[in-house]
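Subject: Phosphomannomutase

B.,
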Amino acid sequence: MVDEKMLLKLQNGSDVRGVAMEGVEGENVNLTPDVVNRIAGSFVQWLEKRTGKPARELTVAVGNDSRITADSLRYEALQAIAATGARALDCGLASTPAMFMSIIFEETQADGSIMLTASHLPFNRNGMKFFTKDGGLEKADIKELLTSAVTILPQSTDRGAHPCALITRYARFLRDKIRDGIGEDSQPLKGMHIIVDAGNGAGGFFATEVLEPLGADISGSQFLEPDGHFPNHIPNPENKEAMEAIQSAVRKNRADLGLIFDTDVDRMSAVLSDGREICRNALIAMMAAILAPDYPGSTIVTDSVTSDELTVFLEKELGLKHHRFQRGYKNVINESIRLDKEGVVSPLAIETSGHGALSENYYLDDGAFLAVKLLIAAAKLHNEGKDLGSLVATLREPAESKEIRLPVTAEDAHAAGDVVLVELEKRAKAAGIGIASPSYEGVRLIFPQGWALLRMSLHDPLMPMNVEGREKGSVAEIIKKMAELLDGLEGLDISKLK
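Prediction pasted inline below.
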C-alpha cells in the first residue's frame, strides 16, 4: 500500500531516492515501478500548474544512468507521462546534465525532464531528479510532488514514447564548446592523450563521442561500458579505489590527462600526467584559475569545508573573493545564483565533492562541462609546452585533515544539534577560542594550528566535524580540545573523539 508517509521517506533533499530492487539484506524495496509511475504522473500535474499549459501541450523527457533497474523504471515513467496526454521523450541512457539540456536544445524543447539515477549509491538503489527551465527542483517542490503522488493511481497507455538520441545531441554540444574555446574547427585535441574512467556509469560517451572525434588518443580509457553492477569500483570521484584506478591508468599509459566521472556525470575529478589528483580544493582552485581572466574580482562560492589555503590562493593569487557557504550542491548553486542576481559576479559554484556549476552553463552542475573547461585550458597550455598543473602550482594544502561523524542520539536530532552548536559557541568564547564570523553553517573554531568545523548533517542524525591543521600532529591536538569543549553535552556521542 502506498501512503504519504511511505512516499515522503523517498525524499532526499531535492531528489527522490530509494531501494529499487532486492539484493541487500535488510533493505526493503520502496521505489517500485508503480511508485515511479505515480511520481511521474504527479510531475506532469505539477508542470501543468507551473507552466499554465494543459498536459497535451507539454513535453516531458525521461532518461537514466546504467543502473540495473533503469529500463523498467523508465518504462513506467514514460507510461505515466503519455497517459496524461503529454508528449513523452524516451532518452534512454543519458547523463543528468544532458537531461536538463533536453529543455534547452531546440530539437527537444522539453518543458520538464526526469533523470533516473541514484548517483554513486549501491546497485540496488535508484532515484529521480527533476528539471524545468529554471534548473533542478527544490526541496519544497519534491515534497509537493510526493504528497500529490499519493492520490494518483498508476497509469498505462497504448500511446508510445518518442525515441530521442539525446546523448548524441549533447555530445555534439560539448564538442562545439571545445572547438570554439580552442579556436580550431577540426581536431583541436590531436596530439593529446586523454584517459576517461566512467566507472561503468553513463559517462563512457565522453571518451568515444567527445574526445575521440576531436582527435584525442583515448587508449587506456577504462570501464566505459554501462554496467549497473559496478564491477570495477564505485563510480565516485571521491572514492579512494576509484581515484587510484584512474591514477594508475594515467601513469601506465603515460597519458597527458585523466578524467573520472560519477555514475550520472554531474561530477568529475581529474588526474595530471604525473598522477597528481585534481579534486576537492585543487579542482576548485584550477577551475577558478581558468575563469579568473574572464571574471576578474568575481566571487567563487564553495561549501563550508574548503581549506584556508584555498582562500589564500583564490584571494591572494587570483584576486578573487572566496565565499565559503553551506554543504549541499543545491545550497552552493542557489547562493551563487542569488549573488549574481544581486549584481555580484559569481561565475562558479562548486562543492569539494566535485559538483561544479558555471554561470555560463545555466548554473548546471555538470561534470562533463567542467571537463570541457579543463580540456580547453589543457590544449592551450599543451601548445605552449605546459600542463594544467602550472595553474595551481602555488596552491598549498593543509598538512593534515580529518572528518569525524559524531552520532546524535537524541530523538529530535536537529533540535539537539542546534543546542549543541549554541553551547559550543558559548564554551569557545569563554575559553578565548576564535570563532569564524560569519559562519553560514555550524560553528567554525579558529585555533593557532588550524580550525575545526562542527555542523549538522543535511540528512542523517549526525554532526560531522571537519578538522584541518597546518603542521603534523595539529589535527590530534585540535580534536583533543574539541572533545573537552563538547564533553557532557546531552544527545551527542563524542566517543570517536577519545
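Residues 33-51 form the longest helix (19 residues).

T.
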